[in-house]
Every structure is written in structure tokens, then in C-alpha cells.
């Protein structure tokens, strides 16, 4: 029987990267999204598009729709990209037919890494550095914990970025509180602090990540990148990045964590590195990441390798090449934010430099979405971008 793959979250750039990777291997690939069409679904490597219920509004309806599409299309490999679709599928994974591969570790392993409270406890037991941490079960414990804090800012970190309940998925976000009053106000106002979270010391420094693929507790490949420009400019999503050597210390920490969890599949292990070069574990994302296309272009083809280890094939691991990738519309957003910023933040001279860097051609840089051999996803993204601008 011909293998058939269904990639979910079609409006994510990582989904497009996965579709291009797998489709280029002459595999039959369908794309799903909660809208009729999607960016990845516009790719020439997509053979069919499906629509499902919004997992945030009804995880159960989403799962039923995906299962129905999988049965109708003869899907043999199911690949969610975001945490929302991943957590919803894992919640009901016992109902997934045996002939459909869901390329994830056991639910217990996922919970061990995705639940930040459990992750930090595990890291402590493995002597992996974490910020000073107070564990809280609810907002009342958090308010009591703040009485013990003598230095600000602090980081209020929910135990999950997406909290899955029977009737909905609740998104959360990390809050950096500069004062005691800010912290208490956040605890009082945000509903997700009804669930477990941590109060952590704030680490001055920069972020570094290790991207990995594991096969039943054994490492297959690692990758790292360097962020050159981010949106927003002060720190956020990468819009221009390049491949980089994996830091040996961070790789050791990551491998120790993932081996202990007997991890299977992809993971992104994030660290904060202080000025004195000390690395602190921040979180582990048990899914693909936004800059996936850079890894593929650099010869570390995570989607293809993930498919291979889950279908009994041997992975031919290749050496990493240097590549640079740019998300054009994200970079344009970044430039807009700089140009509209006050002059005391970005003086005229700096704004002019940023315009020059944005326009300056670079033969070594590839575009993440807009590619001549597969241009329709960019046209789809551009239409959505312009439509959003008209609503402003």
C-alpha cells in the first residue's frame, strides 16, 4: 500500500517545510487546517487539502474530523505541527487506528518534558542548571511565594503553553514582572494561573536552542542556528537566521534530558545563556519549530528522517552545511516596527541602516516561503498579509 501522509496546521511555516521535504521524496502528502485552504496546502507538493474543526474551540471535534479524514484518505502517517493539535491527538491517541503512525514518544514521556513544572524537577535531579524556582499549584500559592521573593524581575511561567481541557484549549504566556505589584496583578488577572506554574528568577542573557531527533531514546541528529534578526526587534520570532555549530555543553544537557525521557521524535530544547556563559534550561518543545526550513536546507532533513525512523527505514545522516534563511514578510514587519518606534529608541541613523540592511541583496540567503520552484505558498501568504493590512 502506498504511504499517505497528513500534515496538520497548514498555515504554519514549519508545516510548509515538512510538506516540501516529504513531497520532494515523491511521498503522497495531504495538508489539514481549520480553514478551507492554507499556505502549506498551496504547495505543489500537496496532493489534497482537508478542513477540520478548530482544536482550540473543541479538541474532541477536531480529533473526530482528523480521524474521519484519515480513514477516508487512507492516511498511514499523521504529523501535527503545533502544540494544540499535538496535545489534542495525544489525548485521544488510543483511538488512532493501528495502521496510522503518530510519531511521538509515549504520553508519559511527552508529559514529562512538556509540563514545565515536571521538566524543571527532572533537570534538577540531573544536575542541569535552571533559574531559581518556586513551584506553585495555583494562584494562592503564587501569591504566598511572592512574599519570599527579594529580587525582581521574576518570571511567571505557566506549566504549559497550551492547557488542554475537555471543552477547549487555553493558551498561556510567560510573564516577566518587573515589580512585586506587577507580579501580583498578573496572578490576579490571568485565568491560567488557576493551574500549576513556577516563579523563577530572571536570567539576563540570550537564548540558544538545540534541535534534536531521537529514535526510542537514542540520538539521530542535532542542529542549531543563530538568530540574526527577530520580530519584534527586542526578541521574538526569528526572521533571519543561519545555521551554527551545536554548543557541546548544550548538546550534553539536551541529550541527558531526552535520553532520560526515552524520547522518540523531534524536540527543541531551549536555554538562556548568561553573560558569564552559564546556560539555564528554559523549556522543551515537543514539536517542530518555526525555522525548520533552515535545518532542511542545511542538510539536516528532520521531517524525512522522522518519517524514516517511524517506518522501519535506515537514516543516512548527513553533515551540516552552512545556510542562511529569511522570512521575508516577517522581516518586513520587523522593519515597520523599527520605523514607527520613537527616535529615542531608534534614531534616524539606525532607521536608515535598518532600511539598507533590509534592501541589501545577499546571494547566500534563501527565502523561507517564497521559492521559485514552489511559489504559490508565498502568493497565498502575501494575499493574507495584504488582507490583514486592510483591516488595520
Describe this structure in words.
The structure is a single chain. This protein is of the alpha+beta class. It folds into 3 domains: 4-102, Rossmann fold, CATH 3.40.50; 104-130 and 204-392, D-amino Acid Aminotransferase, Chain A, domain 1 (2-Layer Sandwich); 132-201, Dna Ligase, domain 1 (2-Layer Sandwich), CATH 3.30.1490. The protein has 13 helices and 17 strands. Strands 15-14-11-12-13-16-17 form a 7-stranded mixed sheet. It has a 4-stranded parallel sheet with strand order 3-2-1-4, sandwiched between helices. It has a 4-stranded antiparallel sheet with strand order 5-10-6-9, with helices on both faces. The longest helix has 15 residues, at 59-73. It starts with a strand and ends with a helix.
Amino acid at each position: 500500500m502506498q504511504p499517505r501522509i497528513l500534515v496538520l496546521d497548514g498555515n504554519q511555516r514549519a508545516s510548509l517545510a515538512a510538506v516540501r521535504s516529504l513531497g520532494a521524496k515523491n511521498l503522497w502528502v495531504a495538508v489539514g487546517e481549520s480553514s478551507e485552504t492554507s499556505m502549506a496546502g498551496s504547495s505543489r507538493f500537496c496532493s489534497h487539502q482537508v478542513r477540520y474543526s478548530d482544536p482550540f474551540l473543541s479538541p474532541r471535534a477536531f480529533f473526530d474530523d482528523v480521524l474521519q479524514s484519515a480513514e477516508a484518505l487512507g492516511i498511514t502517517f499523521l504529523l501535527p505541527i503545533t502544540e494544540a493539535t499535538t496535545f489534542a491527538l495525544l489525548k485521544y491517541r488510543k483511538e488512532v487506528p493501528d495502521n496510522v503512525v503518530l510519531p511521538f514518544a509515549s504520553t508519559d514521556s511527552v508529559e514529562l518534558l512538556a509540563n514545565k513544572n515536571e521538566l524543571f524537577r527532572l533537570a534538577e535531579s540531573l544536575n542541569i542548571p535552571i533559574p531559581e524556582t518556586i513551584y506553585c499549584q495555583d494562584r494562592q500559592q503564587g501569591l504566598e511565594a511572592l512574599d519570599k521573593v527579594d529580587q525582581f524581575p521574576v518570571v511567571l511561567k505557566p506549566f504549559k503553553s497550551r492547557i488542554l481541557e475537555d471543552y477547549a484549549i487555553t493558551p498561556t504566556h510567560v510573564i516577566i514582572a518587573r515589580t512585586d505589584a506587577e507580579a501580583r496583578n498578573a496572578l490576579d488577572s490571568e485565568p491560567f494561573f488557576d493551574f500549576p506554574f513556577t516563579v523563577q528568577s530572571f536570567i539576563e542573557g540570550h537564548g540558544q536552542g538545540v534541535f534534536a531527533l531521537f529514535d526510542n531514546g537514542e540520538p539521530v541528529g542535532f542542529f542549531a542556528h543563530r538568530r540574526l534578526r527577530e520580530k519584534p526587534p527586542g526578541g521574538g520570532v526569528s526572521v533571519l537566521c543561519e545555521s551554527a555549530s551545536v554548543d557541546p555543553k548544550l548538546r550534553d544537557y539536551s541529550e541527558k534530558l531526552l535520553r532520560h525521557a526515552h524520547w522518540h521524535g523531534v524536540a527543541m530544547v531551549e536555554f538562556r545563556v548568561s553573560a558569564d556563559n552559564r546556560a539555564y534550561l528554559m523549556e522543551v518543545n515537543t514539536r517542530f519549530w518555526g525555522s525548520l526550513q533552515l535545518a532542511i536546507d542545511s542538510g539536516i532533513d528532520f521531517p524525512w528522517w522522522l518519517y524514516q525512523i517511524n517506518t522501519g527505514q535506515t537514516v543516512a545522516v548527513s553533515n551540516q552545511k552552512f545556510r542562511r534563511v529569511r522570512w521575508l514578510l516577517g522581516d518586513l514587519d520587523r522593519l515597520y516596527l523599527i520605523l514607527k518606534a520613537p527616535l529615542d529608541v531608534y534614531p534616524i541613523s539606525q532607521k536608515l541602516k535598518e532600511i539598507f540592511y533590509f534592501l541589501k541583496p545577499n546571494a547566500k540567503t534563501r527565502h523561507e516561503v517564497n521559492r521559485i520552484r514552489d511559489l504559490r505558498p508565498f502568493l497565498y501568504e502575501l494575499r493574507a498579509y495584504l488582507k490583514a493590512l486592510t483591516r488595520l
